[in-house]
Amino acid sequence: MSQRRILFGFHAVGVRLKVAPASIVELLADPARRDGRMRQFLARAQAAGVPVQDSGAARLTQLAGGPGHQGIVARVAPLPALPTLTELLEDLQDAHAVPLLLVLDGVTDPHNLGACLRVADGAGAHAIIAPRDHAASINATVAKVASGAAETVPYFMVTNLARCLADLKARGIQVIGTADEAQRSIYDADLRGPAALVLGAEGQGLRQLTRKTCDELVRIPMRGAVESLNVSVASGVCLYEALRQRGG
Predict the structure, then answer these.
(1) What backbone phi and psi angles, to 5 degrees, belong to 40?
(2) What is the pLDDT of residues 101-149, one digit of tens each?
(3) At what angle do helices 110-123 and 231-245 cross, to 10 degrees?
(4) How much is the pTM?
(5) pLDDT band at 82 (very low <50, low <70, confident <90, very high)
(6) Handedness of CA 62, 68, 74, 78 (dihedral sign)
(7) Which regions of the chain carry the CATH code 3.40.1280.10?
């Protein structure tokens, strides 16, 4: 029972309803909300064979930890265990796929992590990697912000990030970090081959050891008055540049 967790919001619950409806233990909806979006969602739940229970807004807010639940909260069982990072990389090699990984160094805000997961899903990244001791973990807030991407993008928290990056390099994956002072632009980097894009938290940037482990550092051109971008926005810029170079 302790392994069950809470998902809330149309996107986060909707993706679970799509990919693993049998894992939904309890689906609660606010009976005071019956607009078109809610009716459409309830029809999807019915089609998937998932019963819905009425629950007041106060109870939903308590379960979700805040009022941003949109009238939908689900208690879900864990999905089957994801492959390890090593297994994922071996599967990509067997499938002759070109790895595209996002590495987050020191991103501790769950809203930023959720937005990064959403961007990674949209750009087709195969996984996100983060250090276990300097990163946000997946929780209900992350899942809500990720709009379902927390269910689709593998998120690996590793004990030693520098060692993990070295292992990626040994597998032929180019490790490219971002830094404001870098000479080359992200648009000058060749991202068509296996690549891991490494971004740090806004303001702090990459830690020194992480920076030293990268094959090269690139910058995102800034033409306005602000000095940096939010990490999720920067992730989107970098991942979609890789997607563009790989043919869209």
Answers:
(1) -65, -40
(2) 999 999 999 999 999 999 999 999 999 999 999 899 999 899 889 988 9
(3) 10
(4) 0.79
(5) confident
(6) negative
(7) 85-245
CA distance readout (Å), 139 to 68, 109, 136: 14, 11, 9
| CATH annotation of 5-76 | 3.30.1330.30
Name the amino acid, one letter, at 161.
Answer: L
Nearest to 99 by CA among 163, 168, 19, 161: 168
Nearest-5° angle of CA 248, CA 217, CA 228?
80
How far is 50 from 151, CA to CA, in rounded Å? 18
- At 124, the amino acid letter reads G
Q: Quickly tell me which residue has 């990163």 as its tokens.
A: 135
**CA angle (242 as vertex; 237, 246 as ends), nearest 5:** 145
Enumerate the CATH 3.30.1330.30 domain ranges in the chain, comma separated.
5-76
DSSP notation for 86-144: HHHHHHHHHTT---EEEEEES---HHHHHHHHHHHHHHT--EEEEETTSSPPP-HHHHH
The C-alpha atoms of residue 10 and residue 8 are separated, in whole angstroms, by: 7
- Class for the domain spanning 85-245: alpha beta
DSSP string across 49-96: T---EE--HHHHHHHHTSSTTTTEEEEEPPPPPPPPHHHHHHHHHHTT
d(CA 62, CA 88): 37
- Cα torsion 184, 188, 190, 196 to 10°: value is 50
Q: Could you read off the pLDDT of 182-199 as tens digits, one per residue?
A: 999 999 999 999 999 999
